[in-house]
Amino acid sequence: MTTSGANNPGPGTTEADASGAADADAAEVADPDDDPPASQPDPLVGGGSIWDNLLHWVYLDGDRRVLTAALLVGVFGASLALIAADLITPAEAGDITAISAALVGGMLPFITVVLAINQLILSEEFGTTGAFFERLEETRDYRRSIENHTGYRPSPAEPSAFLRVLIESKRRTALGLKNVCADGPPELRAAVDDYVATTEPRDIDAIDTLEDATFGTFDVIAVIIHYNDPWQLQEVRQIREIHYHDLPEAAENQLDRLEDLLRDIHVARQYFKTVHMQQELADLSKILLYVGFPTLLGGAFVIVAYGNLLALEFHPYVYVVVVSATITALFSPFAVLLAYVLRIATVARRTAADFGPFVLQQQVPTEETETSDAGE
Predict the structure, then answer these.
(1) Using alpha carbons only, how large is the chain's radius of gyration in Å?
(2) Looking at the DSSP assignment, which residues form a beta bridge with residue 355?
(3) Alpha carbons 281 and 316: distance in angstroms, whole number
(4) pTM, entire model
């Protein structure tokens, strides 16, 4: 999906933005060693090896249905292995009914889990007409603020296009800052160039990812996870404070606009992350019901009828398959819960440090402060 504003500066775009955008292709390539710190990076996610990529798929990128199926295939294989090792004996009806009864008993708390999830989701939907009206007004004010900061009118309604407009405007503003500081002191130019060289490639990557992405797919959430606006905001504030005496008025205006846009991006990221997690929880509750009800019936059938099934004296392999399939089916709600909660928890952890202007992790921008003489 391509927004018209992403290609043409809106009425609020400054001349510095346009000239900076013209130099986009000539922007410096960021040194990998200069990467900004990730928001609360999960130590199991984000490396470059095959194992790390597999973990990244399991924790974030993978289709939850595929991951659930893979887990259940593993359970089925483990059941066959336990039967082959004579640790589970299909010929003993008492053992099989005991296993089934234990697993069915463990499934019953899932009813409470589903009710708790739906209560959490519905708590955001209940309210008075006044509350809904106030929410609508706040949303309208936010969109108008976005339009004033970006110059794109009207701002897109589709979340991926909305984020793309914000990041594109922020990128143009950063390039505009670089342009207006081109004739400044060497220390100021170096600080601005480093900031632009580090952030612009990541802006371009996010813009390209969002161009054809649809909200509801994980592509949009991946951008939300990895776009570290608190770190960028801290860098912008350090440039302003450390080089206060060297900043021309145009650079001050660009820095103001950068701070506004980074705040806008932060609010959008947090909101869309919340909506995505609500959707994930809603999907989880539905799938738990779809899977849990027939599984509960199947488990009850095995408990009641497995002894009679043994009396029919089928081929032993039939009982091996029945027992393995029963155990796998009774584990299916647990597999669904694991697959979905794993990603929800990972997303929450990797964005846990996104607390406005604070960067709550070990690697933070070098804390250089300088007391300004504005009051002298």
Answers:
(1) 27
(2) 358
(3) 42
(4) 0.73
Cis peptide upstream of residue 90 (ω within 30 degrees of 0): no
Q: Band of the pLDDT at 127, cuts 50, 70, 90?
A: low
**Helix boundaries (H) for 13-63:** 15-22, 50-56
- Whether residue 262 contacts residue 151, with contact meaning beta carbons closer than 8 Å, is answered with no
Q: Find the DSSP H helices in the chain.
A: 15-22, 50-56, 64-84, 93-107, 109-123, 129-150, 159-180, 186-211, 218-226, 229-242, 249-311, 316-350
pLDDT at 65 over 70: yes
Q: pLDDT confidence of 358, banded at 50, 70, 90? A: low
Handedness of CA 108, 111, 113, 116 (dihedral sign): negative
For residue 360, the model assigns a pLDDT of: 54
Please report, as a single letter, which amino acid is at residue 293.
F
The whole-angstrom separation of Cα 51 and Cα 57 is 10
Q: Which two tokens stand for residue 111?
A: 């009813």
Q: Is 355 helix (H, G, I), strand (E, B) or coil?
A: strand
